[in-house]
Amino acid sequence: MAETKDVIAEIVGIEPGSTLAQVVAGRADIMALTQQTHDGALMPETPGGLSHAERAALACRIAKINDESAFEAHFEALMDEAGASDATARIADIWFDGGSDARLKALIRHVDLVAHAPKDATRRDIELLREAGIAEPDIVRLAELVAFVSYQIRVAAGLRLMRGLA
Question: For the chain, how are helix, strand and coil distributed in percent, rounded to 5?
Fold first, then answer.
């Protein structure tokens, strides 16, 4: 595994020297790219219209939707690192719908839709983001975030299954 932090390895609990660690080491390039994508999706140098705290809160929401408590804790730590206000941290509450904030309501609605039933998302769902004042680059950033967090959760689930078979 790479010398840099590896969120998936930490969350899965891959022990150095284990059979699973050897398997992952054989895919070190993929794991390093996954970690780079994590850093770019959640804490990019230029966050655009989605702050680091909002990204972490939305990612935490996705983790909760997927019942992934280890990722939930990880994204909560990122929210803290990003200095999330109470209002921003509330995004992670799966019972919160955005309240009267049209932008937030649209972001949450879209994340919930794509995290729960991605095949049900349509062009109209993108239009709703635009209508809420979300700029095109931020719509792309949001799509990247949702796709990456979903990917990350599935990779971890696969590695846990492999660990159970080893």
Answer: 70, 0, 30
**Cα 104 versus chain centre, distance:** 17
In whole angstroms, how far apart are CA 161 and each of 132, 158, 165? 41, 5, 6
Q: What is the CATH number of the domain that holds 71?
A: 1.20.1290.10
pTM of the entire predicted model: 0.92
Judge contact between 14 and 24, C-beta under 8 A: yes
Answer yes or no: is 1 within a domain: no
Count how many residues are written for the chain: 166
Contact 139, 129 (CB under 8 A): yes
Residue 15 reports pLDDT greater than 80? yes
Range of the domain at 88: 7-165
The total of structural domains in the chain comes to 1
3 state DSSP class of 100 = coil
Q: Which residues contact 5 (CB under 8 A, 6 or more apart)?
A: 35
pLDDT digits 0-9 by tens, 72-96:
999 999 999 999 999 999 999 999 9
- Give the Cβ contact number of residue 35 at 10 Å: 19
Residue 139 maps to a domain: yes
